Amino acid sequence: MIKKNTLKAIDFFSGAGGLTHGLRSAGINVLAGVDIEASCKETYEKNNKGSIYLERDVTKYSPLELEKDLKIKRNDNNMIFAGCAPCQFWSIIHTSREKSKKTKDLILDFQRFVEYFNPGFVLVENVPGISSKEGSPMGKFISTLESLGYKVAHHVTDMSQYGIPQKRKRFTLLASRVSNISLPEPTNKQKTLKDILGPKNGFSKIKAGTKDSSKFLHSAANLNQKNIERLQMTPANGGDRSGWQNKKKYKLECYSSGEKKFYDTYGRMWWDRPAPTITTKFYSISNGRFAHPEENRAISIREGATIQTFPKDYEFIGNSVASISKMIGNAVPPAFGKILGDQIVRSLESK
After folding, report:
1. What is the DSSP string of 222-263?
2. CA distance 29 to 273
3. What's the angle, vertex CA 228, arms to CA 224 and CA 233, rounded to 5?
């Protein structure tokens, strides 16, 4: 019988530790995060005491090296391997596929570790397109798991249906060879921005360009005067650029054809809805609907982290708004990580 407090995990592609933090909150001992990004190490280890950060390139790292680094064993029924690889190549959001080609098959690099160690559980969270786009390696990965005797449950889930305050669709997979695993049922209890942001939730009103040197990091990117004026003309609570787009002084050349495309850019979020998907560029109003519902600025670093469900005392260490926003946008929301960890624990209790 596997007990809750004996479960342990390795978080591949861990980044700043969103999933690690969530699994730890579910009572799972995360031994290590494995990631190529040196910039995430300090943030990861600062907030997840006892979990170490292995700065490794998984495409060149071998299962034997991992075995030596962590002194772990094969065929460990108590072990969870989590592999949330950066796979922008398969994203349904417009992105440079040429730039992201080198990461398109990282799930198969993760597969090498699963095949060698044969852990009790496997967890994957990824962009929706990895399960549906032609040529995706996910089908091969799932077939391999099934051939190894894993029961596999997978689906594209919208995290807003699980109480995460953003519309974030992700491919989610749980697999087990030691229990009857299934995906968690949606709670359908949506959280909106007014539930988590604003003065009553600890977020004072600030201006674009505010630099918060405290650990709270309620810092917002600077805006030029023209963009501030654009936001002043954008209605509060979900307004878009339609009111000023055709004014000569404010017209955006990239949308000069007049087509109603990408109206989320320069748009405001809604107080009474979940946020849109938090990306690595959430600090920029030109990269999505990332303007504050009523203040003339993009959301702050801490507001983005809160939408991603990081605790308010989670300390991000980086040298710029952009670098920290990248850590936050790439993360698995910790609250969703806890939901998945709890589901693994429940699968053992119902054995």
Report:
1. ---HHHHHHHHTSPTTT--GGGTTTSTTT--GGGTT-----T
2. 34
3. 150
- Percent over 90 (pLDDT), the chain: 80
Alpha carbons 5 and 55: distance in angstroms, whole number: 27
Q: Mean pLDDT, the chain, as a whole number?
A: 91
Q: Encode pLDDT of 203-237 as tens digits.
A: 999 999 999 999 999 999 999 999 999 999 999 99
SS3 of 32, please? strand
Q: Give the whole-angstrom CA distance, residue 351 versus residue 347.
A: 6
Q: How many whole angstroms separate alpha carbon 252 and alpha carbon 333? A: 33
Q: pLDDT tens for residues 89-123?
A: 434 444 444 544 555 578 999 999 999 999 999 99
Distance CA 207, CA 211 (A): 9
Cα three-residue angle 188-191-194, rounded to 5 degrees: 155
Query: Considering all CA atoms of the chain, what is the largest pairwise distance in Å, rounded to the nearest integer?
Result: 70
Compute the distance between CA of residue 6 and CA of residue 168 in angstroms, rounded to an integer: 31
d(CA 115, CA 108): 10
pLDDT for the residue numbered 176: 98
Here the tokens at position 188 are: 């359908």
**87 catalytically annotated:** yes
Q: Check residue 270 and report its DSSP letter.
A: P
Domains, the chain, in order of start with CATH, read 4-188+332-349 (3.40.50.150)
* Alpha-helix runs per DSSP H in 266-332: 301-307, 321-330
User: In this model, does residue 318 exceed pLDDT 80?
Assistant: yes
CA neighbor of 116 nearest in space, from 158, 65, 168, 167: 65
- CA within 13 Å, CB half, 183: 19
Which tokens hold the place of 99? 């730039």
Condensed to tens digits (0 to 9), the pLDDT of residues 121-155 reads 999 998 886 554 445 678 889 999 999 999 999 99
From 40, 84, 87, 254, active-site residue: 87
